[in-house]
Automatic annotation (TrEMBL):
Taxonomic classification: Bacteria, Bacillati, Bacillota, Bacilli, Bacillales
A single MF term (Gene Ontology): endonuclease activity
The HNH nuclease domain, residue ranges: 214-268
Record keywords: Endonuclease, Hydrolase, Nuclease
CDD domains according to UniProt: HNHc
InterPro entries linked: HNH_nuc, NA-targeting_endonuclease
Name of this protein: 5-methylcytosine-specific restriction endonuclease McrA
Pfam families: HNH_4 (PF13395)
């Protein structure tokens, strides 16, 4: 009954990559009891926050619950994949989200990021309660207390430093494995037409539908020029693009410190590639300015460190993003 645990302490001081892989394999396989998709979504939520951890490898429950709620909203409401467990009743998080949608009259076509901030916070608080009851302890038990420690009273969650490094180093493979096994379970539980193009739905459930709010912040604080080619951006609608400096398909999250303004030509040409390393130094300088200007008003640069985007750049290369791009 590990899912009922309120406190879990780390049981290993050091873990090899081989030991971590072996546990990951068990977690994703049929050897791990999965009555719902909770464990998969927790792993996806941790991946989304790999570069948002504090200097002590800690995450808040709110950070994890936000990602967790976003995934389930987009699965359950946006894609109508309501069956997320093997029991006769809906998984508790599904019931909460469906009730929340009906209570507040939110259209089904709304993705999570289109919901107002105040309603998002209310939903995240409710989802956080479910996670305390059914999620943290379950994955803790499957990983034998070696991957992370947690405390419900303090709302404290800390990844083992070796596991954090491992997840960053093999991030792309872990994402693909998690998406595959999660899609297989959802496919088993749901019926057509909801399961059409299921894997692509699972792969994209964390992606924002629009980066317009970030565009407005960047335009407010910086000149209206392309980050890559320095050409002035046109005022014409659709000509300014918000680009993920490190491709979204690797980082799996939308952090302002990884977002830049780009012209349509550069954005199209760069696509899913990694910019030349010289641009890494430029974005670090940009983020230093952004940190000073934005932090008093927004909480968008929390836990940002220059070393994190450098790590992200290096780990993305190790994960196969080795086609280096620069504007022509």
């Amino acid at each position: 009954m590990s899912h009922k645990l309120r406190v879990g302490e780390l049981k290993e001081q050091y873990m090899t990559d081989e030991e971590i892989w072996r546990i990951f394999t068990i977690v994703l396989s049929t050897k791990s009891v999965k009555s719902s998709t909770y464990k998969f979504v927790l792993i996806k939520s941790l991946i989304e926050n790999l570069y948002q951890v504090s200097d002590n490898n800690e995450l808040t429950y709110d950070q994890i619950a936000y990602a967790f709620a976003k995934v389930y909203w987009n699965l359950v409401v946006h894609h109508n994949l309501v069956n997320q467990n093997r029991g006769p009743k809906h998984a508790k998080v599904v019931s909460i989200i469906k009730d929340f949608q009906q209570k507040h009259g939110i259209p089904s076509e709304f993705s999570f990021d289109k919901i107002s901030d105040s309603l998002q916070l209310k939903m995240v608080a409710m989802v956080k309660t479910v996670m305390k009851e059914n999620v943290y302890g379950a994955l803790y038990g499957d990983t034998r207390g070696t991957f992370y420690e947690f405390d419900h009273k303090r709302e404290y969650f800390r990844l083992h430093p070796n596991v954090l490094r491992f997840m960053r180093q093999y991030q792309r493979l872990i994402i693909n494995l998690t998406n595959y096994h999660m899609a297989a379970m959802i496919e088993e539980l749901n019926e057509v037409p909801s399961i059409n193009y299921l894997l692509s739905k699972v792969e994209s459930i964390a992606r924002r539908k629009t980066l317009k709010p970030f565009e407005q912040i960047l335009l407010h604080h910086f000149e209206n020029t392309c980050f890559y080619c320095n050409k002035k951006l046109s005022d014409k609608k659709g000509s300014t693009h918000v680009d993920h400096f490190i491709p979204w398909s690797f980082v799996q999250s939308d952090q302002i410190w990884n977002l830049v303004l780009a012209c349509s030509k550069c954005n199209s040409s760069k696509s899913d590639k990694l910019p030349k390393r010289e641009y890494l130094h430029i974005i670090i300088e940009r983020n230093d300015k952004l940190n000073k200007q934005v932090k008093p008003t927004f909480n968008l640069m929390e836990n940002y460190r220059d070393k994190k985007i450098i790590l992200l750049y290096d780990y993305s290369i190790r994960n196969g993003f080795d086609i280096i791009w620069s504007p022509k």
